[in-house]
Amino acid sequence: MVTLDDNHLKAMVYGGAVLGAGGGGSIAAGLAAGRRALRRGEPRLVSLPELADDARLVTFSSVGTVGKSSGVDQLEGQHARALKLFFSADKGEVAGIIASEVGPLAVTYGWRESAVTGIPIVDAPCNSRAHPLGLMGSLGLHRLPRHVTTAVAVGGVRKPDSYIELCIRANAVNAARIVRNTVANTGVPLAVARNPLPACYVRRHAAPGGLSYAQRVGETLLNQMSRGLTPVLRALARMMGGKVLARGFVKSARLEERQGFSVGSITIRSEAGRHIRIPVCNEYMMVLDDESPRAAFPDLITVFEAGASLPLGSAEVRPAQQVAVFAVPRSRLKLGSTMKDRALLSPIEKLLGVRFSAQELDV
């Protein structure tokens, strides 16, 4: 068991920004959330082998866009309320909290609650990268239609016209649909506590070690950041097994909020004069080089800003920025079991008008 401090926080958040692939919150929101938690107490991190097979774990997630007004960065303290309501709805003991994904804010899911309640965060996120759909962080429960789960969602401020509390008992598919539709219809991002499951099940479907991996990625980034973008990317390529797909200037970045997602496309003019297009559904979903696919989700795609040598959230990309597109093949990532289910990509294909390749990035 590890007692988390500001050094762990900074490394995880910056590593989460790389692994967030444009989603999973912002660096500023992640640092702020983690430091609020550290002021409340000492959050603790445990590995899965430290827990009994029957230890019940609960997933924390956030559902919303990446926009400034209605994005998940606006959530502050709602997970604490969601956990309290979860205890009322589900009478079983909770032995640990797991994050639904890895991103710069997502790596702090459970920090405040661990600091206050003593319940540890478990180093077994549902996925070691960020993803756009709640079912992608549901540990394969979408394949079990008869399994009834509990999901509690909280969002907004405590005013009748903007505050939401949901308590759902349904299978994972229906629960995810209700939460996503609520976000789409209200524009209010939701903090979710859901899917109590035994550690033995989580072990088979999650990404054990995903938070520690994010910490190592962040340490690599921070160690090289003062030297500039090229050393950063070179070090990350060695560590992660990735490569730079393109460098150039952003020509356009157009995102809109649709069905509770931030959807659109980023266009880059590469130094080689090529047309690079990146479809976005919260995260960077694909790299098209003159409309020929070079990488596609669940390959990791991260856009770095040259001046700061830092990953950019998809909502932070602006025309005229000098950027580099970095990618890591899916086989080099710690992915949850749902990343093998191509059927989950169908709604994203319809939103973006693209077809995801089954072939991974070739490094």
Concise synopsis of the structure shown:
The protein is α+β, with helices and mostly antiparallel strands and 363 residues long. 28% of the residues lie in helices and 28% in strands. It has helices at residues 6-19, 27-40, 78-89, 111-117, 172-186, 199-205, 210-224, 229-240, 346-352; strands spanning 2-3, 44-46, 56-63, 96-99, 121-122, 149-155, 164-170, 190-198, 243-258, 261-270, 275-281, 283-284, 286-289, 292-296, 300-305, 310-311, 322-328.
Your description of this structure?
The protein folds into 2 domains: 2-210, CV3147-like fold; 229-352, CV3147-like (Beta Barrel). The strands form 3 sheets. Strands 9, 10, 11, 12, 13, 14, 15, 16 and 17 form a 9-stranded antiparallel β-sheet that branches. Strands 4-3-8-6-7 form a 5-stranded mixed β-sheet. The protein has helices at 6-19, 27-40, 78-89, 111-117, 172-186, 199-205, 210-224, 229-240, 346-352; strands spanning 2-3, 44-46, 56-63, 96-99, 121-122, 149-155, 164-170, 190-198, 243-258, 261-270, 275-281, 283-284, 286-289, 292-296, 300-305, 310-311, 322-328. Helix content is 28%, strand content 28%. With 363 residues, the chain is α+β, with helices and mostly antiparallel strands. Strand 11 and strand 12 (283-284) form a beta hairpin. The mean pLDDT is 94. The chain is globular, with a radius of gyration of 19 Å.
